[in-house]
Amino acid sequence: MKRFGTLAVRVLRAVFAADGPLDVEEGRTLAALIGSLGLSQEDSAPLYNESAIPVEQLDVYGEIDAAVVRALIRGAWHASAWDKIDPREEHVVRTIAQKLAVPQPEVEQMRADADGTCGCTARGRCRSRGCDPVRDVGSRTGHRRHARIACGHVAASASSSRRGCCRR
Fold it and tell me: Which pLDDT belongs to residue 117?
């Protein structure tokens, strides 16, 4: 969980930082993701204070399950589509997808899904079914907590409840 969780945090931070300094909501979203990973204080503390790593320098090593890779890229697209996909954010997501060897047609489909899925105005609070790209980064590794990145929003929960779901 530590390796994939750290990668998810770094990817999300890189997307958020691509278009300028993090705002308060982006900071909260990162903190929620870090908190939802269930890491020890010792392991999670550096993630809270880490600076954004330029995407070109982001290390992606070892084998990563294809479902986790797709979840990371899908979540990155949704994070970038939170306010509108900025070309700098798009560059970050495409570079990460290339490093993770995601086929271009899949990258394009995930982008289209993220860009057109959520037309709601619940910025950061939408939990509609179509806006729930990363249900549980943790469950891929057997961890019980879930981190959902939806419309650029991370909601930490112990279940997949849909309370507060916005409906278009």
Answer: 52
